[in-house]
Amino acid sequence: MKILVIKFLLASCSITFARADNDDGYRLKHVSVIFRHGDRAPDPVEMFPNDPNYQNTFYPYGLGGLTNEGKRREYRLGEMLRERYDELLGELYQADAIYARSTDYRRAKMCLQLVLAALYPPKGPQIWRDELAWQPIPAEYAPSIKDWLMIPEECPEYLKEHKDVKSLPEVKEKIDKLSEFMSNLTEWTGREISYVNDMYNLYHILVAEQAMGLELPRWAKEVFPKGQLYDGIQLWYEIFSKTTHMRRTNGGKLLHNVLSHMSDLERGQRAPKLGLYSGHETNVAAILQTLGLWYPHVPEYSSAVVLELHEKDSQYYVKVLYYLGIPEKWVEQVVPGCEAAMCPADKFRELLAEVTPSKDEMACDKSVAKGHGYIF
Asked: Which residues, if any, are the signal sequence (predicted)?
């Protein structure tokens, strides 16, 4: 684990803020942002009987609802995107310049609206009410049962691969090492904890409660945020995108969408200048894993993976950044195989061809598969 973290740090350059356009001849042409929602209340699927907050309805947010701190954090993400990409975005909102999509979770939809509100407060001819610095901006989503772009881990081909990975000797050995700990968790929580999915849900309810300043169970202090529960969720992430096929299905579908918009612009065709994908830490983790940039951690609230398309002397380049969310820090990434953060677009596509699905591979029929059993 330490080796992976060191590799990430060596391949990254931390910048607290910088505008995307600079004076070295590169011109920014497109930005895609894949981001996690903000702080939220615990979700029903995560609840456990022995939780001191078990009877809490989390009024007025509701179970799984976006908290005020979560709203502020997402709005701040929008402000930082506006600061960084001001020249690309222009002053006025234009419908054909933006592709905005979320999952069918209320908190993800709300976060997309918050980011859009920060990006495009009405100016000049778009001011429709003097005392309201806001304008409606449409966004799209697909019902979860039909969302193969942002929730592809419910696709049958992915679930089959996931089942096979769980049976691998090396994976079973790692799960077995956590069996005694899971038995203890079952006793402590009052619900059955028998697989890494259960530890995943347990970890995230503790994150949510801690962020809300709520009382945590006594046992949590020994295993959270670091400790055996952290080890369990890291194993979950390892299994999540273990194989090339899983990365191709998982983060690869988002990558396909991003690269399609970039390709259209490179060919001189009409395409959005900005792509926004409001989702979950699973989306952030998946795209990092697909890009070969994953290191052991849990993506924070409002964290984002940003892919930029630049042009210089009629040649195109892709740059990847990781916005940590907590803290508010941009980290430039070097995709494995690229010599620098600014990677020639053709080379970028070549390096990631194996994990980028074709157009024919994008859709799937989720109705024939069962849900994954975890929450985001």
From this structure: 1-20
**Pairing verdict, β 140-141 and 330-333:** unpaired
Q: How confident is the model at residue 22 (pLDDT cuts 50, 70, 90)?
A: low
Residue whose structure tokens are 């983060």: 251
Closest CA to 38 of 301, 275, 273: 301
Is this structure's pTM higher than 0.85?
yes
Q: Which token pair is 7?
A: 């590799």
Return the percentage of the chain with pLDDT > 90, whole number: 91
Residue type, 12: S
Tens-digit pLDDT profile for residues 60-76: 999 999 999 999 999 99
Give yes or no for residue 49 having a pLDDT over 50. yes
Residues with catalytic annotation? 37, 281
Give me the numbers of helices (H) and strands (E) for the chain, helices first please: 14, 9
- Cα(365)–Cα(369) distance, rounded to whole angstroms? 8
**b/e map 146-167, b = 16+ CB within 10 Å:** ebbbbbbbbbebbbebbeebee
Rounded CA separation 216/227 (Å): 15
Domains along the chain with CATH numbers: 2-155+243-368 (3.40.50.1240), 156-240 (no CATH)
What is the length of the chain? 376
What DSSP designation does 336 have? Answer: T
- Which residue, 320, 309, 321, is CA-closest to 346? 309
- Alpha carbons 89 and 367: distance in angstroms, whole number: 39
Residue 6: half-sphere exposure toward Cβ, Cα within 13 Å: 3
